[in-house]
Design goal:
The structure is a homodimer. Chain A is of the alpha+beta class. Chain A has helices spanning 2-10, 25-31, 58-64, 72-75, 77-84, 87-99, 111-117, 130-136, 140-166, 183-196, 257-276, 283-296, and strands at residues 15-20, 39-44, 50-53, 68-71, 103-105, 123-125, 168-170, 173-176, 179-180, 199-200, 205-208, 229-233, 236-237, 246-250, 311-313, 320-324, 336-339, 342-345, 349-352, 355-359, 364-366. In chain A, strand 15 (311-313) and strand 16 (320-324) form a beta hairpin. Chains A, B: Residues 2-92 form the Creatinase N-terminal domain.
């Protein structure tokens, strides 16, 4: 909380005000409270944070949240609602009263609330992203949660890849246990395994052939021999809220020479990227080193080839600070980042290899211990 | 799109501007595109909506989104970024250029973006919630998706309740197949079943005894005989994005007289609520009828007793318009709502029974066909 107080103080404000549900990672980080509907959070400088909750959530919030719950009645909200006749106006009224002075707000505060808050005094946008910066440097407790999620993810990846390895080619598609092996079957098996580990995976990618050339295409239908299959899994551990993130590319059979070359180059790029990571190195430099590597091997970066950034932070969001992209600033010890170079060409296919681990003072503590081999 | 054009036009604006990911239900509704990171959406009056996407998402967006994808380069964003040196500024610059005049924005637009947009012209908040209003009235296609999700949910509920029914009491806890039957075991079985149906359940409630008195307490540990067990399941169908929502309260053994009375009263309240639903009736009247019913039977509404609203809309969010609460306006045919009266007393426990269905011109098309019995 000291860093949030520092931000409030530096902005010349009396309090930090947010309005979000636990779908918002900043909110979950600040409150440790899981809730579907948005709640008002007010942290006055130097005081315990408060959370305005409906009566029905009071006892649960008292038991679960790290902020001090206040009912809507106690907060003044219900009286303001009588007076103002409009929930958003009453919300702004409540926030202003609890804050007691100029407010610092996250850039993501609902615009409607921000505009109404301006009627009560100065509203300063936290352009530095104080909570995001707090979240980017993980505690040992957070690192353990992320490492555990990544271990479950590697086991799920192994299960999916084993299905492809055990399959056989027939009539241009892969068969397993007498049935066509589809993207959906592999996803279902990985998801069911992960659920048993307390992790929920969504939007998982198992994309074969032409579909693999679109980096975020989820993929559907039969998997085919001799074509690249990109698998990208990024489940969330339900209990902790932390994500994992991992990708592999495999071929059952014989890859085209283009795919084999792309895979070799992506593998080298990943090894290079991981070798350069340590606290203090700008994410932009890591991205640039991989762009240079690809360029030297005749692969472009931009509209095709290496079309995304080298990596991103992972935590309560699957994409968060820091960024390993052209705009990425210096890494810090305790950051958790992916290293995921990829190459994508329409008509040929895609290759991506993604590991995740923690940045340390002297290097990279890779949490992903799993083969990067292409051919099954 | 006509209703969005009407809202743009009524506000005297040139375009509607949003910036969100598919975690935002309005965004998913408008674009039908699944994406983790926020994207800029600009709908000019009378024109096709546009979606500004990173290069790596272009091909996928062209294949999947109902808005027309434009790369960041094509949109001008990358040039503005060079000029403005700051992503949020470049984003506002891009939005203003694409809009070409005053903009209508959702109340949830990030405040930082809204403030920057003000530098380019008038920014009008859509206080009427045009997209939310569009979402509240479902098409037959949406109704079918929600009904299918609710059917899977009822089957999962049956599976969970069957585990409790098959259990036996020993030493103050329930045992099933030689092991203690816990909240976690029941949840895991229901979740695994739902996953096989393509549905992801999160924050499911299986709360026993004292925990059942907190309406949103998720519950943990051994389930016990003779105590109320509230089960509340609200999974999301991954493919369609639509939610279901259902609750039951059961007792293995002999409920206390208080719980038996509360259950009878809640059951009557639900039957009453469902019988009064039809297009045109205000949600507030339905809620008030149930408050009156409870009052007549000696149960209060407020800090304890009936502590929440009678129900809520369900769709791409588990809680959306319309509201069956003191502030709820008239229902419309095509709304999907829950009817979920409950009573909660610390020291005694909680009872909630929740069905979901569609509002029709003349009544309520209940999608939940499952026993409401208390005693197993």
């Amino acid at each position: 909380m000291k860093r949030l107080d520092d931000a409030i103080s530096a902005a010349g404000c009396a309090a930090y005000v947010a309005y979000a549900s636990s779908k918002d990672a900043d909110f979950r980080y600040l409150t440790q409270f899981q809730v579907s509907d948005p709640l008002l959070y007010v942290k006055r400088l130097g005081e315990e944070p408060g959370l305005v909750v409906p009566q029905m959530e009071y006892a649960r919030a008292a038991a679960e949240a790290t902020a001090v719950p206040v009912t809507r009645a106690e907060s003044g909200y219900l009286a303001y609602l009588d007076e103002d006749k409009e929930p958003w106006k009453a919300l702004a009224h409540t926030a202003a009263a609890l804050a007691g002075g100029p407010v610092l707000v996250p850039g993501t505060l609902p615009y409607r609330l921000g505009r109404l808050l301006e009627g009560y005094g100065e509203v300063v946008v936290d352009t530095g992203g104080a909570v995001g910066a707090m979240r980017a440097v993980k505690t040992s407790h957070e690192l353990a949660a992320i490492r555990a999620a990544q271990q479950a993810t590697a086991a799920a990846m192994d299960l999916g890849i084993a299905m492809i390895r055990r399959s056989s080619a027939q009539g241009g598609v892969l068969l397993l246990d007498g049935e066509v092996l589809t993207s959906e079957r592999v996803k279902a098996a990985m998801h069911t395994y992960l659920m048993g580990q307390g992790c929920i995976a969504r939007e998982t990618i198992v994309a074969c052939g032409e579909e693999s050339a679109m980096p975020h295409r989820q993929g559907a239908g039969p998997l085919r021999p001799d074509e690249p299959i990109v698998i990208d899994l990024f489940p969330c551990d339900e209990a902790t809220g932390y994500y994992a993130d991992m990708s592999r590319t495999v071929v059952k059979g014989e890859p085209s020479p283009e795919i084999a070359d792309m895979h070799r180059s992506v593998l080298e790029a990943q090894t290079l990227g991981k070798s350069l990571i340590r606290a203090g190195v700008p994410g932009a430099d890591l991205h640039a080193a991989v762009v240079k590597h690809f360029d030297e091997q005749g692969y472009e970066s931009g509209a095709q080839g290496f079309v995304h950034s080298l990596g991103h932070g992972v935590g309560l969001e699957v994409h968060e600070a820091p960024s390993l992209s052209p705009s990425g600033g210096p890494l810090a010890a305790g950051n958790v980042v992916t290293v995921e170079p990829g190459l994508y060409y329409a008509g040929i296919g895609g290759v991506r290899i993604e590991d995740m681990g923690a940045v340390t003072a002297g290097g990279f503590d890779c949490y992903t211990d799993y083969t990067r081999d292409l051919i099954l």
